[in-house]
Amino acid sequence: MYILGIESSCDETSASVVEAENDVLTVRSNIVASQIEIHRLYGGVVPEIASRAHIEAITSITEQALEEAGITLADVGTIAVTAFPGLIGALLVGVNFGKSLAFANNIPLVPVNHIHGHVAAAYLSNPDLKPPFLALVVSGGHTSIYEVTSPTEFREIGATRDDAAGEAFDKVGRVIGMPYPGGAALDKLAYEGDKTAITLPSPALSGDTLDFSFSGIKTATLNYLNGMAQKGQEINPADVAACYTDRIVTALTAKAELALKQTGMKTLVLAGGVAANSHLRQALLTMCDRKKVCLAMPDRALCGDNGAMIAAAGYFQYLNGNFADTSLNASACDDGQGI
Ligand code: KG4
Ligand code: ZN
Questions:
Q1: β-pair type (267-271, 294-296)
Q2: For residues 281 and 207, what is the distance between their CA atoms, to the nearest angstrom?
Q3: Span from the CA of 172 to the centroid of ligand 1 (angstroms)
């Protein structure tokens, strides 16, 4: 069966065809049109511009996805569309496009939670992966730990109380002169710096909680940069990247380890845009190796927002019979309730 996945929750318009055969999911096409160049001018995503760019791209992106997979709409078994959470105007473009396509062509439609989509990317790269497992989802908008008991059942057991890790990477990246989004550039630069050069607070909250707070480390880093500028002293951007990355990676790894201990889970999934971070991938590999825990990660190309992860998550919604009708609405909220 072919699943057409559509993603438009933030600044990537994406459509993908995933084939499901005996519960093995294979990506047949995954077209991603990034708006990064447009938003870079403003140093961040401008919601209204994002919605307009999705409208311009979505039809041709979907046509390309079908063409590259060598199928037509008549072959599609279900259409999966990101319905929440995300930017409301951006989501509405994908939801309305998906609804129109589904109902005009008599194809079942399934709504997908974007976060479940990020986790489902791990099934595409690890065909043997099956719940139960713990999922550490780290993206531009989220930093959470979930207990996943089935492909559609998630319980959040830890979360950031303020900013997300990706947002924190982007903010400091911008201040030290990286183009938006700074996450990937900081990843590379961190190899050239000394991770002990600057003392920064940990984003892991102390004690048994699995929660994080990134506002403290972000402010401390900005204060350090401002203080150096006021004293007329040069900063070494590579040292900033190395220290900042090390504190964030250490905190994420420590809380993932604590969550494994508290739940007794034997498999950890890392997902979300920040899952592409090479330091985080290595730190989790080392920790999981030591704890004899299986670590499953999406290929780096599937970590950022894409239609294939939405198609993968949509397949499980389809199996559950969670179909949407023409009343389907988008929601900016994590639980899909409310605008
Ligand atoms: O999941 P995603 O594509 O979008 C959201 O759902 O938010 O995540 C985007 C975030 C951005 O903050 C970006 O800077 C970050 O993922 N990111 C990285 C890396 N690649 C992307 N952060 C750290 N290291 C990377 N290699
Ligand atoms: Zn995302």
A1: parallel
A2: 24
A3: 13
Residues 6+ apart with CB under 8 A from 39: 11, 45, 46, 49, 50, 180
State if residue 11 touches ligand 1 by the CB under 6 angstroms criterion.
no
The first and second tokens of residue 205, run together, are: 């909250």
CA gap 125, 310 in Å, rounded: 14
Exposure string of 81-98, with b = 16+ CB inside 10 Å and e = fewer, is bbbbbbbbbbbbbbbbbb
For residue 9, the ligand 1 atom closest to its alpha carbon is: 6
What pLDDT shows up at residue 339?
Answer: 85
Q: In what order do the strands lie in the sheet with 143-150?
A: 153-159, 143-150, 133-138, 267-271, 294-296
Residue 140 Cα, ligand 1 centroid: separation in angstroms? 5
From ligand 2's centre to the CA of 251, what distance in Å?
A: 21
163 lines ligand 1 (CB under 6 A): no
* Greatest C-alpha distance within the chain: 67
Residue whose CA is at the smallest distance from ligand 1 atom 10: 140
Can you tell me which atom of ligand 1 is nearest the CA of 166? 12
Q: Provide Rg for the chain, Cα atoms.
A: 20
Tens digits of residue pLDDT in 249-304 = 999 999 999 999 999 999 999 999 999 999 999 999 999 999 999 999 999 999 99
CA gap 82, 116 in Å, rounded: 10
Low-confidence ranges of the chain (pLDDT < 50): none
Q: Which of 218, 200, 195, 220 is nearest to 283 (CA)?
A: 195
pLDDT of 23: 87
Tell me, using a 6 A CB cutoff, whether residue 35 lines ligand 1. no
- Res 174: pLDDT: 94
Instruction: Give nearest CA residue, ligand 1 atom 7.
Output: 140
Nearest-atom number in ligand 1 for the CA of 141 is 7
pLDDT digits (tens, 9 = 90+) for 133-161: 999 999 999 999 999 999 999 999 999 99
Closest CA to 99 of 84, 79, 75: 79
